[in-house]
Design brief:
Residues 45-71 are annotated as: Disordered. Residues 45-60 have a biased composition (Polar residues). It contains 1 helix and 2 strands, in the order αββ. The protein is of the alpha+beta class. It has a two-stranded antiparallel ribbon with strand order 1-2. The longest helix is centred in the N-terminal third of the chain and has 42 residues, at 2-43.
Length: 71
């Protein structure tokens, strides 16, 4: 009986580890994407506009995605 329990536990542990690895890969990919967006935003030249022109500012929303607000 213990051999069967051990094999079941090993299979569950393997499935759990695969799920954790997939989640970690997703988090790493998202972090890389956001870092890329951030470096692009920092390296692009800033436009100089007249005071009468409308300005757009960028903020991160609750989901971490950029939100552009036109004022």
């Amino acid at each position: 009986m213990r051999v069967v329990q051990y094999k079941q536990r090993c299979l569950l542990d393997e499935k759990r580890q695969k799920a954790l690895d997939l989640h970690l890969n997703y988090i790493v990919d998202q972090t890389a994407k956001y870092s890329h967006w951030l470096t692009e935003g920092l390296t692009q030249p800033q436009e100089i506009s007249s005071p009468s022109a409308s300005r757009t500012s960028s903020h991160l929303g609750s989901d971490g995605m950029p939100v552009f607000i036109k004022s």
